Recover the amino acids of this structure.
């Protein structure tokens, strides 16, 4: 079983607020990812990290930023939330091997009013 | 441009029926994975296929990777309400690319 945790599960905030979505994994995985997903739709990669102090932007442009100071922690920050940021945010980590396997957290459902 | 198209987008069937979900691309992938996602949760890996033409079975689920490694299918035999969820394929290139998803609802 994967041990990857996201908090909060649900967040409703007003426009202009700064927020941080937390993601932690206890498996020692080097690779971590943030995906954005609208209800019932595909996942879009917005950020990824291959290790401590390594972060890259994904395929979908996002106004969010990430940091990777510790292997187990990969938080995502929005400096000024807008209604267009309303979505589900999924964090994942992966294990090294011949075939990469992604383990997902339960997600944070963000609603910006 | 969406690299991985899934069909159908939505599917509602009765318990006991069979169904097939397709994942198609014009690109070649080194491997392809299928995930199932339930409401309010993250996707969970079901299977990985690597070799062109490969067939894998997971209880009532049968997964096939196309010979050219550009497409895949998921066949469910005798669907049950517990199979309800969003099915996502994901192809591996330099990183994983997810398909458009198929939302399946199995009615009791």
């Amino acid at each position: 079983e994967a041990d990857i945790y996201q908090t909060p599960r649900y967040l409703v905030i007003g426009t202009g607020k700064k927020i941080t979505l937390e993601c932690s994994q206890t498996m020692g995985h080097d690779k971590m990812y943030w995906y954005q997903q609208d209800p019932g739709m595909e996942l879009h990669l917005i950020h990824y990290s291959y290790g401590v102090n390594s972060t890259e932007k994904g395929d979908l442009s996002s106004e969010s930023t990430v940091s990777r100071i510790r292997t187990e922690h990969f938080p995502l920050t929005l400096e000024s939330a807008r209604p267009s940021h309303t979505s589900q945010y999924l964090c994942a980590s992966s294990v090294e091997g011949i075939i990469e396997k992604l383990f997902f957290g339960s997600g944070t459902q963000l609603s910006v009013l | 441009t969406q690299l991985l198209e899934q069909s159908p987008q939505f599917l509602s069937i009765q318990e006991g029926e069979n169904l097939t979900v397709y994942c198609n691309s014009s690109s070649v992938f080194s491997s392809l994975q299928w995930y199932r996602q339930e409401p309010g949760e993250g996707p969970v890996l079901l299977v990985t296929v690597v070799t062109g033409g490969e067939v894998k079975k997971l209880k009532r689920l049968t997964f096939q990777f196309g010979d050219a490694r550009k497409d895949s299918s998921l066949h469910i035999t005798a669907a049950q309400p517990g199979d309800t969820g969003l099915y996502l394929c994901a192809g591996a290139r330099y990183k994983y690319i997810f398909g458009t998803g198929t939302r399946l609802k199995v009615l009791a």
